[in-house]
Design goal:
alpha+beta
Amino acid sequence: MAIAKAERLMNLALCLLGTRRPLSKRELRGSIEAYMEAGNDESFNRMFERDKDDLRELGLVIETVENLEGETGYLARRSSNTLPPVSLDAEEAAALGLAAKVWQQARLAGAASGALQKLRAGGMPEAEDPYEGRHGAIEPRIPVHETAFEPLMLACRDRRPVVFDYRKSNAARPEPRHVEPWALECWRGHWYLAGFDRDRGAERVFRLSRITGKVKSRAGAYTAEVPDVVTVRETVAEWAGDITDRTALIRLRSGAGYPLRARATVVREGGDGWDELEIPYGHGLDAWLVEFGPDVVVVEPADLRADVVARLRAVAQD
């Protein structure tokens, strides 16, 4: 049914764009097979009016003209439906080229390369590549290895609810999540999905590497308002641990945990083989501390200590 409607809309658009004079409903019905197969005039009129509204919603400018006999006709002038030529300066062309390189490891690589070829064929200037000859040292890349990336990207674009199995870092097994996806963000080499969790009735952020199985789309509209881009990015930053509003006190084995030492605001050397560190504390610190295993002991706050212990117990149960 969707293919038949798309074909019908395309045929109607071609008729309206290809005519030099307004075409009446009678003429359009005799030119488009789907309209000829309409059971009666009422069915055809409903179909035509819906199709005309759909084309206008898609951006086609359709004029309604009345001839001398009082008959209403329709046409879409090419001058009203032609986009202006693409005009890019050297800096804009360089930015597009750089963006295309970013996606070389993702399935978007083909689409990005094809878009650049079309723009260059249309006269876009060849920009100097600032990374030419230095690809071995520095190269702009956003790695995308998670199979969930593409279906979630499309769901964010089309505003479609999704369901997937998600395993929290402190959980023994995954559980289903019903989400209204807002946006995808790459943070420190990891992809995150920000969206509205229907089961919990609140916004949540999910790390794509913890999504198991397939991402499945669901019908229906969003139930929660989608925030602006800035709010989504701040949410991702907060849940990824970049926004900190507290300080955690931990004990770290001497000679271990150099990433933690680099982030610490205070380091006090101990004489018992352990050092004390004060580290900015935000969401996600518990998951990071677990990675250092027995080399880290949380002193305070108590809730962070409890979260780390819970994650360690979940790992031990696997």
